[in-house]
Each structure stands twice: as C-alpha cells, then as structure tokens.
Amino acid sequence: MGVQNSPEASLDEKAVIAAAERALSDIARVRQEVAKVIFGQESVVEQTLLAVLSGGHALLVGVPGLAKTKLVATLGTVLGLSASRIQFTPDLMPSDILGSEVMDQDENGKRSFRFVPGPIFTQLLMADEINRASPRTQSALLQAMQEYHVTVAGRPNDLPRPFHVLATQNPLEQEGTYPLPEAQLDRFLLQVDVGYPDLAAERQILLETTGVSDAEAEPVLSAARLLEIQTLIRQMPVSEKVLDAILALVRSARPGNGDAATDRHVAWGPGPRAGQAMMLCARARALYDGRLAPSVDDVLALAEPVLQHRMALTFGARAEGMSVRDVIAGLVRQAGG
C-alpha cells in the first residue's frame, strides 16, 4: 500500500487524469464536428468512432444511401487522417489494392523494379461493398488488417500508422457476392449495423442537403494525436468487476459452457479476440461518454457490435426464425442488462 501513497504514484495518477481530461475534450469536439454533417445515427457514429479510437477496424452493414461513405470521409477529415476509397467489384485484383512493381529504365539503359504503392497505403481505408470482391482479393486485405504490412514480390512494405479499415457491406444484394470468411470477420473489432434514420433526422437531412451548399466538417485531431489517445485508452484501468463481466458474457456465447440456450441455438461462438475487442471498446466508450473508467453497462451496450459477427446459429435456431441478435439480447438480459 505504501507504494500507492507515494508522491510519484499520485503524480502519475494526476498526469493520467489530466491526459484523460484532454482526450475527453478532444473527443467531444470530434463528435460536434461529425454531427454537423451526419444527422441522427448517434449509435452508428459512436460505434464507428469507438472502433477507430480503440485502434481497430469496423464493418458497416446497411442498405445503400444511408451515408456510410459520407461518414467515413467525414471521419478522415475530422481525425486528420489521409483517406482513400476502394470500390470492391468481382474483377478487382489484389494488386489493385496493394500496388505492384513496375520496371524503370535509367538514362544508361539500366533496368530496375520500382514499387508503386496501391490505395491501401493510407491511414483510413474505405472498402466499399467488401463482399463483392473475390476471396483472393479479400485475403490480400486480411493480411494488411492483421499484420499492418503487405507483401509484394516477396518484400514486406509497412503501412502508415495509424491504419484503419472501415468496410461497408450491403445486406440486400447477395447476387454475385462472396460472403466474408469467419477469419476475416473476426478481424473487424466491431460490426456496426446502419439502420434508417428516425423522422426528425430524415427531416433535417432533407432540409440541410438539398440547398446550394452542404455543411463541411473541420479537422479536430491529427494522426499523431489520435495515436496518443489510442495509447491512453490502453492505459485506462479496468476493474475486476468489468473484467469478470466481459469474460462471463463472451464465454456464455460459446456452446459447451453451461448455458442451455446457447448450447441449443449457437453452432460456434466468439473466440478470445471478442474479449480483447470488448476490453478496448469498453474503455473507449467510457472516454466517449466523458468518464475515466469503464463500467459493466459499457460491456452490455457493446455486446451486439462485438459479438454478432463472431457467432453462427444452428440450423434448428435459423429454422425457428431466430437471429444472432435475439441470442445476444437473451445473454445480455441474463447478465443483468
């Protein structure tokens, strides 16, 4: 106990609190700027920002025309990140994303290969309709998302830091699509479901976006400042109670762990990466809400975006018309939500 009461420890604690309060005001300004351009959709904006603040990637699932692309472009501006967009199509090749080697010839006639980087060499990558590309192209993106470098002609090329993929997927159009493999889905920290705006937000959209000029967001952070906030989030304390809640929730979603409803309805459940995502996002959500430590409520609120793409239902559960969301809602109720 003597160590905790030492002047160094209290000074360190004060420094952490001061850093957290600075981050709180930065995040509040980010939220303000995004709200100038994206109307309503608070939970979509929150979850997408949580994924980026936690240092991860997000998969945005929703029908066309719900401002998913606009949200990603706005985040690039507000967070001070270089951004690029790739429209995924069935004929897209890995080299269209990663880049390729071209042969150069100097004035003496000597030839050499030069690497021309592809659009993936950016800090915020918008991967539009990711499930329309072939598995080979998807796997090229998978390596980048996991290892933060890409291999071209046998040589690794590091990606810029920070590096985030915000991918979109249209749930309606299943013709000519290649569903993402489980391993790739697991690389996304969160799956963000983008629904239709409510009446008030849709009214505002009609008024604000059909005039002579649209509102534009201003930069708030820089890439370096975002990295500082991401580091701070990893340093935030997590209580034993919150840690136990994360473990209990993630493990209850796996068959064979003593939960009768899960055993009946779930074919396979989330792995340890789900718990890691929950730990990071719960801390980020606390900061996003203006708090210095996460609570069990943060864990329960994040259950759906963290777990839904890391689980699959049994044939029987699907035949009964159940969805993964129904199963997760039951687990959250059971956990005291």
From TrEMBL:
GO molecular function: ATP binding; ATP hydrolysis activity
Pfam families the UniProt entry points to: AAA_3, AAA_lid_2
Alphabetical list of InterPro entries matching this protein: ATPase_AAA-3, CbbQ/NirQ/NorQ/GpvN, ChlI/MoxR_AAA_lid, P-loop_NTPase
Annotated ATPase AAA-3 domain residues: 57-190
Start and end residues of each ChlI/MoxR AAA lid domain: 261-328
Alphabetic keyword roster: ATP-binding, Hydrolase, Nucleotide-binding
EC number, as in UniProt: 3.6.3.-
Domain of life: Bacteria
Similarity comment text for this entry: Belongs to the MoxR family.
Protein's name according to its UniProt entry: MoxR-like ATPase
Organism: Shinella fusca
Lineage: Bacteria, Pseudomonadati, Pseudomonadota, Alphaproteobacteria, Hyphomicrobiales
